[in-house]
Known about the structure:
Blueprint: E1 4-10, E2 16-21, E3 29-32, H1 39-52, E4 57-61, H2 80-89, E5 102-106, E6 113-114, H3 119-131, H4 135-151, H5 158-170, H6 172-179, H7 184-199, E7 227-231, H8 239-256, E8 268-272, H9 276-279, H10 284-297, E9 302-308, H11 316-319, E10 324-327, H12 335-346, H13 356-362, E11 367-371, E12 373-374, E13 378-379, E14 383-387, H14 399-408, H15 424-449, H16 452-462, H17 466-494
Parallel strand pairs: 3-9, 3-10, 4-7, 4-8, 5-6, 5-7, 8-9
Antiparallel strand pairs: 1-2, 1-14, 10-11, 11-14, 12-13
Helix pairs in contact: 3-4, 3-8, 4-7, 5-7, 5-15, 8-10, 12-13, 15-17
Amino acid sequence: MEDAVFVGGGGPEYGVQQGLSLKYANRHGLIAGATGTGKTVTLQILAEGFSAAGVPVFMADVKGDLSGLAKAGSAAAKLHEPFTERAAKIGFTDYAYAAFPVTFWDMFGQQGHPVRTTVSEMGPLLLSQLLELSEAQEGILNIAFRLADEEGLPLLDLKDLQALLVWIGENAKDLSLRYGNVSSASVGAIQRRLLVLENQGGAKLFGEPALALSDLMRCDADGRGMVNILAADQLMASPKLYATFLLWLLSELFEELPEVGDPDKPKLVFFFDEAHLLFDDAPKALINKVEQVARLIRSKGVGVYFITQNPADVPEDILGQLGNRVQHALRAFTAKDRKELRMAAETYRENPAFDTETAIREVGVGEAVTSMLQKKGVPGIVERTLIRPPSSQLGPITAEERAGVMAASEMAGKYDSPLDRTSAFEILRDRAAKAAAEAARAEEQAEAAEEPAARDFNAGRRYSGTRVTRSTSRSTRSTTSFGDQMTKMVVKELTGTTGRRIVRGILGGLFKGR
Length: 514
Ligand SMILES: Nc1ncnc2c1ncn2[C@@H]1O[C@H](COP(=O)(O)OP(=O)(O)OP(=O)(O)O)[C@@H](O)[C@H]1O
Ligand SMILES: [Mg+2]
């Protein structure tokens, strides 16, 4: 198959080769089907095909069964015979076992190279979603980001955000004057949500060195695309963290990659497994933005493939954009199942040879109803396709094999040690310390200048108060200096010379494309 990823055999006796055209692979896709029907193997063979065509891919390994991509299948494997029979049936004459170039990633830094981003890059919108904030709390988070942007306080890790929130809490009154109600109750609520996130391991996601997208878009020495596998088994315990991270990655790709129109083959293919997690109780506003990113990222040469049990899990606006489809079997136990099945069937261009709805119910394991975009991006008529067997190992590799792949990777060492640059936390801490020292010095000078009698009087009066004054002098002081800065900021804004305000993209991440 030229210019296409070979998917399997369709038509009578499964003898007609079916392929996913590389030219239209950036027009997104869907892999759906009930549990155990072959979605993961389909994902595996698509990754193999893209890699072989020189297209890097990114995928999350939700069940831990994709690492086998790094190792060739074997004639000694249990499934060797069914695989070769299947290959023969679909006319896959040059079927051979092969390993693919894999880079393992892991937010927790155990099963792969660590992946990190900064709080600032994630932005207020996604972070609010991640923290499940109320509208009022989201408002405060927006103010926090704005202040950080304006005041040059880098928000790198969660510690930075926490420090900034403490500062906002201390200055709630002044900030309310400028931004409207900044309630310390809401600030406290965000702080508590951050603790929850930290307990889920979220602290690991934020910090530096942050992931460079170019590291996901590499090819090996033979020109094969890198298969990037994100360990997600542990991550799945915090579905919000999982979904938000993938969404962030998508939005980063969108913001950072240059416009390429419709390339001969995609620059990257992004598989979004357990896609329903992205849409489960997501607010309409977020879904709209995902829809927008999906629509626009196409022209950056990125194809996004959603994998989910039921196509009904994907909002209609987004479903409508998924041009390449592999629909494995759906069950039809309940009235709702049947309705969803009918709706799924209706989205295909009918094949006179069979009834789509019946086919979706009847296809066997590793078989699917497929429709790929053809010339001019028109959906092809639906086919019953026997999916090709994988060339790489089915099922995971061992921990030792994984460690070997990681050690040999170009990425080894690049992200392993976290870096703690001076950021909001340190700046605010130093500012507070400086303010406290200044306050103490001012106080001493005032004391020295006082008349001896007055000093005695004040000392006596201050006996119980001095310490309190000193320990709170930090916030008193910073409030005053903040007040000064605020005036300056307001003046700057009025005269329209801010200019420094950081531009944020569709999903609120930093906009770096300019
Ligand atoms: N294309 C294929 N070629 C050969 N065997 C296949 C193919 N697809 C599926 N199978 C067989 O079916 C089994 C189940 O497939 P798979 O793990 O892909 O299902 P799934 O839909 O991902 O299930 P789950 O929802 O549980 O993750 C595989 O382990 C394999 O034995
Ligand atoms: Mg699976």
